Amino acid sequence: MQVNDSKRQPKQMNGFRAFFQAMSIKFKYLDPWIFCSIVGLMIFGTAMVFTSSTSMATGSATSFFVKQSIFAILSVVILLFLFAIGIPWQKRSYRRTVKFSMIGLVIILAYTRFFGPVTSGARGWLYFFGFGFQPVEYFKIVMILWLAMKFSDVLKYKAEPGRQLTPMLLNWHITLLPVIGMLLDLTMPDVGGFGILLAIAGVMFLAAGVPAVWLCLVVVLIITGLLIMPILIPYLQHLNFMPYQLQRFEAFVNPWSAGDSGHQLINSYYAISNGGLFGRGLGNSIQKLGFLPEPNTDFIMAVVGEELGAVSIILVLIVIGIIVWRIVMYGTRTRNMEFRLILYGAAMFIMVQVLINLGGVTGLLPITGVTFPWISYGGSSLLAWGIMMGIVLNIIGRLRLEADRER
User: For this UniProt entry, which segments traverse the membrane (predicted)?
Assistant: First the structure.
């Protein structure tokens, strides 16, 4: 028996050693720029959640900080797990997972739209055992995977005689579920989430080969809608159509005469102007003390500007720019169309969410309740970003490994 045990121990040790060697080789291909930028943003965001939430916390002043820290750690764990595992991109198991995830999330969105609790004038959250999450955050990720998978299938056959690419890409088998999900999100109503979904889908359609004129037409319609919104607001208010969201559009047009929604934007102006170039100092924000409605989520960048100045906002945008640049760089280098579309979709996801959040804070866009990636408070958002970036880094790791083998 002793001999057998002694034989087992070296085998077990060899097994552990082989596992850690494999992991060390795998992590060699983890993009350090993206990973370190994400971790840095989450550390900075956790600190800003702490300083922006002190006036909101009930009970312990550190409650928001502790929750954000836990979810930040979980987000990194999910990211590293998805990076390290071998995702079976070309196998049926992966395709079935994406398919059933898409169907399941559309069903969850429908349930949320019609039966979910109303929060701040809209339905968009579900709660389980005290934990709230937004299904649309995960729908964005699955929509990227769905469109990339379907478009890559279509593009394999585009060279066949008699086949027109655009009708194939716009086939209802591809677009039906994304369109249903987007419309459900819009009618919750979640204008910000709908805008992000529309931008992601637009850039993926464009990258897949749909003529730019189609997308330009959509952009023209959206801009036209924004331009005529000031004319439509009085009539829509008379019909009691989306009153909470209309107040936000009215505040966008003229914040000085838009009631509570206008005061949100005005206090955001005050916060940014008070901060100046270098800020009032960490923890010294005045506007977070009951003046800004959501100082730790929607308006956290206004608090960043007031406490740490415009320089800090610029530095955050530089870090975000590094992440987007690295993702797009790998997307342009790969010949795998599915990987390229996922990377482009993820880059657009980050970029549009940042632009909508900062646009709302500065008054360049209507306030839509969109959070700032990795910095705003929110466990659901952090977990979703962990999933998205874990998938992105998994793809980039494969591309780095392939490039290393070709040398």
Answer: 33-50, 70-88, 100-119, 125-148, 169-186, 192-208, 215-236, 308-329, 341-368, 374-397
Please give the DSSP secondary-structure letter assigned to residue 86: -
- Sign of torsion over alpha carbons 41, 47, 51, 52: positive
Distances, alpha carbon 158 to alpha carbons 119, 202, 219, 331, 340, in Å: 46, 20, 26, 21, 17
What span, in angstroms and rounded, lies between the C-alpha atoms of 51 and 390?
A: 29
Q: How far is CA 13 from the centre of its chain?
A: 41
Please state whether the peptide bond connecting residue 189 to the residue before it is cis, i.e. omega within 30 degrees of 0. Answer: yes
211/169 Cα distance (integer angstroms): 11
Which ranges constitute the DSSP H helices of 276-336?
300-333
Residue 387's pLDDT band (cuts 50, 70, 90): very high
Tell me, what amino acid is at 25?
I
Q: Where are the domains of the chain?
A: 41-406
3-state helix vs strand vs coil in the chain, percent to 5: 75, 0, 25
The tokens describing 252, both together, are 């966008």
Find the length of the chain.
407
User: Residue with structure tokens 């730019």?
Assistant: 212
Task: Give burial (CB, 10 Å; 0-12/13-18/19+) of 347.
Answer: buried
Could you give the angle at the alpha carbon of 93 between the alpha carbons of 92 and 97, nearest 5°? 115
Read off the pLDDT of residues 106-135 as tens digits, 9 standing for 90 and up: 999 999 988 888 776 678 888 887 778 899
pTM equals 0.87
Could you give the dihedral angle defined by the CA atoms of residues 407, 22, 33 and 352, in that order, rounded to the nearest 10 degrees? 100
